[in-house]
């Protein structure tokens, strides 16, 4: 509350007679209105007026005593004398510390002592943190239980970040990428090239149109596409999409869109299928409902007519020599699709969807094509003030991150993350003004959460920003036409956000981030207890359909996991384990080990790290069996392997041999999974490894080694994994080429 002391003095001068008049005779307020509380209020007003007058006198006195600091003509001895006098006067004005009576009722602290004056309020409110009279914080753990943690050796994640920072991947001085602007850096060696500048129209009679057959599970091949293959040849197209045939990217848009809504959107509902598909079929040549299964889905779904007609833009303008459409890597080819469609195709081209049998070269070529086509459209929409166009840009950006990270384009990813974060905040204001339909408002909320999380992650990775950039909790509302599974997933995400955004989780994760980037993190025993209790309470409060065991961290839960047939329940458990693992694995190395509290935290961290790793592996195996959605892919192996190696090194130093065999068993399991996930054509030779090279080596052309591979991030991951395996005496087995 802000008090206007000048108006208070005027009130006192003008109405002093009224306030101080005896309550009797004609002024007997009890007789006037029959309200006895009014007299108490008047007395309270008088008390507050006196308090305000005293406060004003203190402020005036402090202002007068600070005059020597504003005039430099006073001698030093005079200033010292003034300071001494001011200090003594201030000490005289300090109120006597008050005794506060506190009681604990149902676990809540309750103040029994009344606050009757402004001085009481200031003392209780802790307005002066340096005051000796403030109420001390009550904690059964005391005030000296803070423990400092740091990394004692490089983890796989820290090694990867070191390489990326060393070679300028996060800034403008990258030896891997040196983009002055987007259009100058494309085309690249991976861009798909049309033989002539044509305008492709979606037509059933077009020679590039593929029939509506599902993707065939053909084994991957590491053979690069032939330079003689032409997407614009007159030969008849194949009847199915083969992993060994090079197709025109525009001819597979339908299949990529269809597969996205089958495998990914149900588990991560970033699009409203009915609205999107209704507009998608209105593009040129896409109105025939018999063209594909995707179009049939669109004709049977219900959607809002108002949003379907304005929500997604089209790219149907004729080509011109100065057009900014997707021409840089396509020899003048103009894509007729809107940026959201192109972004979906870019995402699906490099996804791990088991229904898309692309080779690594096809992933890069198709992904590059759709990425460039989408970027050149959304770059022209950044300045469009229309809220609908801004929402379209935000949605497109969120689908492009996967391709950018796999190709190590962190600098551009950070730019888009910043723009997406700003756009999302602007759209929140538009949603409050009721300018959006129900579908648009809900999608803006969903994409804002993703934009906030991505922005925070990119700032942390690129510039080590440790600010609290976390999304605010927003309700996730199911939209008309969304399936029962999607509704259930949204409900689960709401519970997950309750856990992730809990105060105790946010505070401890901020300290863990400091440890990850090489700084010192501070954790108290009390914070550890509160964090773990928060996680356990969250698990116990989950609906029964997602909670299949009572103790989520105990290895006895393995039997319940192996019997669980509900993928969403496994997903909930996996998220809880992953967050807990991220905390405890960074608490293995305190700066000092001579404290009993430190020993307690360290032992707890060892046990929780091993248990969480073991349970995550079991959950991942079960998800592969029970889930029919590629969106549930559990990318656990890299993180779990990193944590296990960290635990293995710690166990060797502490001579804890009882757990070494158990740790090595799971490390070998993770190595096997990672070895299978990384394609054979992304294996960096050991003699060219950047991780195993001396840290003081000056690199010139060596960093380009990663960009010689279709997916540079995979090459980097293999380099880090193989080097880490050698550090503990293991070798990754060779995988024969198909």
How would you describe this structure to a colleague?
This protein is mainly α. The chain has a domain of 89 residues. It is built from 25 helices and four strands. The strands form two sheets. Strands 1-2 form a two-stranded antiparallel ribbon. A hairpin with a 2-residue loop joins β1 and β2. It comes from Absidia glauca (Pin mould).
Identify the notable features of this structure and list them briefly.
coiled coil, disordered N terminus, two-stranded antiparallel sheet, mainly alpha, Transcription factor domain-containing protein, 738 residues
What topology does this entry show?
Blueprint: H1 5-20, H2 29-33, H3 37-65, H4 67-70, H5 76-93, E1 102-105, E2 108-111, H6 118-124, E3 146-149, H7 156-166, H8 253-263, H9 273-280, H10 293-300, H11 305-310, H12 339-349, H13 360-378, H14 387-406, H15 410-432, H16 438-463, H17 484-500, H18 503-516, E4 521-524, H19 525-540, H20 557-563, H21 567-584, H22 596-626, H23 637-653, H24 660-677, H25 712-727
Antiparallel strand pairs: 1-2, 3-4
Helix pairs in contact: 1-3, 7-25, 8-12, 9-10, 12-13, 12-14, 13-14, 14-15, 14-16, 15-16, 17-21, 20-22, 21-22, 22-23, 23-24
């Amino acid at each position: 509350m802000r008090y206007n002391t000048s108006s208070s003095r005027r009130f006192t001068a003008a109405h002093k007679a009224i306030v101080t008049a005896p309550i009797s005779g004609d002024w007997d307020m009890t007789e006037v209105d029959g309200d006895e509380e009014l007299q108490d209020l008047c007395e309270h007003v008088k008390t507050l007026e006196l308090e305000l007058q005293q406060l004003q006198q203190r402020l005036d006195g402090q202002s007068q005593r600070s005059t020597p600091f504003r005039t430099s003509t006073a001698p030093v001895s005079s200033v010292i004398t003034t300071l001494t006098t001011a200090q003594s006067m201030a000490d005289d004005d300090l109120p006597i510390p008050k005794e506060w009576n506190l009681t604990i009722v149902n676990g809540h602290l309750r103040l029994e002592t009344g606050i009757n004056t402004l001085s009481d309020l200031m003392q209780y409110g802790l307005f002066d943190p340096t005051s000796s009279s403030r109420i001390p914080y009550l904690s059964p753990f005391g005030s000296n239980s803070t423990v400092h943690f740091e990394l004692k050796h490089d983890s796989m994640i820290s090694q990867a970040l070191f390489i990326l920072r060393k070679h300028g991947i996060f800034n403008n001085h990258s030896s891997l990428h040196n983009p002055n602007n987007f259009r100058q850096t494309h085309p690249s060696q991976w861009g798909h090239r049309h033989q002539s500048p044509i305008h492709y129209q979606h037509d059933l009679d077009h020679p590039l149109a593929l029939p509506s057959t599902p993707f065939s599970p053909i084994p991957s091949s590491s053979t690069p596409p032939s330079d003689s293959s032409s997407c614009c040849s007159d030969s008849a197209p194949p009847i199915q999409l083969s992993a060994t045939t090079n197709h025109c990217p525009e001819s597979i848009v339908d299949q990529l869109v269809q597969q996205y809504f089958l495998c990914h959107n149900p588990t991560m509902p970033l699009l409203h299928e009915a609205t999107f598909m209704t507009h998608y079929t209105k593009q040129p040549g896409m109105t025939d409902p018999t063209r594909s299964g995707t179009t049939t889905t669109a004709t049977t779904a219900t959607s809002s007519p108002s949003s379907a007609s304005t929500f997604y833009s089209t790219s149907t303008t004729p080509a011109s020599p100065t057009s900014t459409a997707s021409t840089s890597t396509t020899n003048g080819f103009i894509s007729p699709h809107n940026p959201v469609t192109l972004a979906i195709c870019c995402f699906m081209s490099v996804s791990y969807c088991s229904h898309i049998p692309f080779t690594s070269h096809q992933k890069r070529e198709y992904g590059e094509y759709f990425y460039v086509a989408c970027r050149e459209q959304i770059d022209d929409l950044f300045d469009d003030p229309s809220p609908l166009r801004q929402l379209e840009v935000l949605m497109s950006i969120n689908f492009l991150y996967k391709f950018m990270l796999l190709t190590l384009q962190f600098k551009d990813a950070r730019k888009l993350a910043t723009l997406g974060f700003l756009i999302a905040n602007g759209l929140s204001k538009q949603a409050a003004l009721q300018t959006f339909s129900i579908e648009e408002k809900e999608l803006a909320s969903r994409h804002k959460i993703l934009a906030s999380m991505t922005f925070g992650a990119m700032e942390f990775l690129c510039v080590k920003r440790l600010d609290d950039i976390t999304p605010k909790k927003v309700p996730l509302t199911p939209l008309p036409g969304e399936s029962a599974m999607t509704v259930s997933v949204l409900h689960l995400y709401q519970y997950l956000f309750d856990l992730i955004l809990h105060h105790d989780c946010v505070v401890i994760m901020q300290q863990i981030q400091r440890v990850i980037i090489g700084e010192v993190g501070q954790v108290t025993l009390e914070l550890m207890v509160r964090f773990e209790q928060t996680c356990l309470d969250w698990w116990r409060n989950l609906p029964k359909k997602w909670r299949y065991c009572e103790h989520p961290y105990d290895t006895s839960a393995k039997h319940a996991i192996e019997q669980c047939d509900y993928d969403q329940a496994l997903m909930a458990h996996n998220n809880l384990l992953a967050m807990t693992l991220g905390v405890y694995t960074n608490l293995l190395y305190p700066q000092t080990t001579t404290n009993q509290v430190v020993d307690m935290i360290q032992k707890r961290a060892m046990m929780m790290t091993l248990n969480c790793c073991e349970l995550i592996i079991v959950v991942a195996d079960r998800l592969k069996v029970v889930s029919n959605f590629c969106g549930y892919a559990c990318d656990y192996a890299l993180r779990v392997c990193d944590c296990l190696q960290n635990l293995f090194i710690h166990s060797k130093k502490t001579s804890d041999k009882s757990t070494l065999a158990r740790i090595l068993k799971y490390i070998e399991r993770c190595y096997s999974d990672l070895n299978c996930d990384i394609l054979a054509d992304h294996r960096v030779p050991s003699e060219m490894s950047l991780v195993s090279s001396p840290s003081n080596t000056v690199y010139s052309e060596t960093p380009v080694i990663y960009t010689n591979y279709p997916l540079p991030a995979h090459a980097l991951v293999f380099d880090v994994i193989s080097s880490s395996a050698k550090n503990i005496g293991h070798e990754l087995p060779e995988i024969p080429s198909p």
